[in-house]
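Example record

One chain of 562 residues, shown exactly as stored in the release files.
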Amino acid sequence: MRKIYTIFASIALVFGTWHHASSQSVDFGGTVMNNDILGWGDMYSLTFTSHNYGTARSMGMGNAFTALGADMVSATLNPAGIGMYVGSDVSISPIMQFTKSPTSNSDPVYEGVAKRDQEYKDHTERFGFSSLGGVFSIYRGTGVLTNFNMGVVYNRIADFNQSYRSGSYGNPYTQSMANVFCTLSNVDDLQTLPDGKMPFGNDPYYWGAVLAYKNGLTNKDDQGWFIDRIGNTATIDQFSATETRGSVGEYDISFGFNFIDRIYVGATIGFQSVDYRRNVYYGEDYIYDEYPSGSDMPYQLEYMNYLQRTELTGMGINFKVGVTARPVDWLRLGVAYHSPTYYTLSLFYDAEMWSRTFSAGDNPDGYDLGPFGYMNDSAYSGIWEDSGDYAWRFRSPSRLLFGGAVTLLKRIIISADYERSWYQSTRLRRSPIAGLSYTDIMKDAFKGGNTVRVGAEAYVLPFLALRAGYIWSGSTLRDDYADAIFTHPIPTVSSYITCGVGIKFSQSVYLDLAYQYNSTKSSSYMSFYAVDSVDAMQNIESRLFNTTTDRHIAVVTLGFRF
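Predicted structure tokens for this chain:
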């Protein structure tokens, strides 16, 4: 059974981290810690969206389609738009994404400093699908009910493909992961077996401390835990890299009704598929201007590398309803409600660490050394799984969307949306950790989110349309938490600039192309910290970092109407 984690909060600095309740007031966190659970930050990141994906037409117009409709994205935004189709339509929208994630306050991570770190980059290129599916005309008549359409559509909701890394050189010997794991082992009184071995146990929160012991970062005697392989004249070079992969896609079954070409009503049941993977690498090099003597320090660490893998997979279900009115031919007004999405997710976690130590003395412990006095340690945790009855279940925020669209000269469309999302209402419904609740932190840290989408389309020729759009999502953090440091970076302000071209080859075949540029800012973060609320002189902290995500997306939609 997992242990219960509690929260630590400071007036000056809010960390928002969940950790095992201990006898001392020490809070542990950072991107290298707490990867073994679904945190409230993960819940927020999985549900943070500005609805920027769709077809090339909708993306070219900033997805401002709450009122506009007659597009595959209507199934996700406002299902009333499904009722605006006058015939059947099928389309496919492949995308190519280029993402770069520069990190500020980081020293350059140059070639040769850490072999493992070079496997991670701060940019990614990914191919996928933004939208695909079909809308089918079920009924067409001349009475009050003019059309009845059904849509079966896939739309991408969120994308997690990102890599970012950081470096920090010349740190004091007291500010390392070894110090964090040593403090954690002492605070929570971790024990070894009588023969000196230390099993991983059934609480993966402590697996990092176990790996540290198995790799020589920490040691234990009758007085407690200590560090004996890092000298007090050492400086530490630190490297961190985080790689996230996966996406959230929604499979929608939608129904749209058209009443006398003036009122459109729709409903959607959405099934979301979640695939989220996070690899967190952290490494340290231990540098001496002058090496300690073998008699003073018989074993001296050269480096350590620590890799954690977290995977979240599962499903979510939600409902959407919407209405659009066309009081006059040139004006459309739409409103839609999105229910919370109810997720059930399985979690998989594993970790490994490897290190190299130099025997500077006469090898008093009799280790098996290599020909030049080096020994290599490594350990692997095995896989922790939360699934089935122990799966994680949570509820995302509900959303309310408003939109308006006007048609000018029968060839120009201008559309605008406003979306309100209540992130403070996100709730953990069930978890494998008894008594765990994120309700207070969600209420305290988050507020309602605001998103504005605007778009325009102009037919410069009967078969050729030009499009442009813009999306802005404001921060959902309350003012008191705007400068907070969280376990993982929290996305805050996001903006998108879009443009596109539409070509009609015939009444049946069309091709749309779009480009979208996105810039997302995130909250500041640390690789690790161990904050003592009683004695700040005992704090262990990495450097403070901040990562921005810049994403370029190209999308093509090929569609057929019949």
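Notes: The chain has one domain: 5-106+131-561.
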